[in-house]
């Protein structure tokens, strides 16, 4: 879902650039928005680290259930686009 929002934001930015005259402030705003969206991406290492921490806290069964909820057996099989969602779910365990 986050990817769709990012795509919609990018399309809106493209539309704005094509409709409005391009100026330095517009370019700066677009670049800042893109930097912020890139910062929200979660890596496999971050997810793995959080899940390992939760397992050490005695929540191995919950961690396994989270992973299996994506229709896979291993963390490495999860689609990269699902990392952020998985990370958020694991945080609340």
Describe the structure.
The model has no long low-confidence stretch (mean pLDDT 80). The chain is built from 5 helices and no strands. With 93 residues, it is mainly α. It has helices spanning 2-19, 24-39, 44-56, 60-68, 83-91. Helix content is 70%, strand content 0%.
Oligomeric nature of the chains? single chain
The number of distinct β-strands equals 0
Low-confidence stretches: none
Element order: H for helix, E for strand? HHHHH
Choose one word for the global shape: elongated
Brief write-up:
It is built from five helices and no strands.
SSE inventory with pairings:
Layout: H1 2-19, H2 24-39, H3 44-56, H4 60-68, H5 83-91
Helix pairs in contact: 1-2, 3-4, 3-5
Keywords:
93 residues; mainly alpha; 5 helices; elongated
């Amino acid at each position: 879902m986050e990817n769709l929002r990012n795509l919609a934001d990018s399309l809106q930015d493209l539309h704005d650039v094509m409709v409005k005259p391009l100026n330095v402030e517009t370019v700066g705003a677009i670049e800042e928005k893109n930097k912020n969206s890139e910062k929200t991406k979660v890596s496999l290492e971050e997810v793995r680290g959080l899940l390992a921490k939760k397992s050490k806290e005695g929540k191995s069964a919950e961690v396994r259930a989270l992973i299996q909820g994506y229709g896979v057996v291993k963390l490495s099989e999860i689609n990269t686009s699902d990392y952020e969602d998985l990370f958020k779910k694991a945080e609340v365990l």
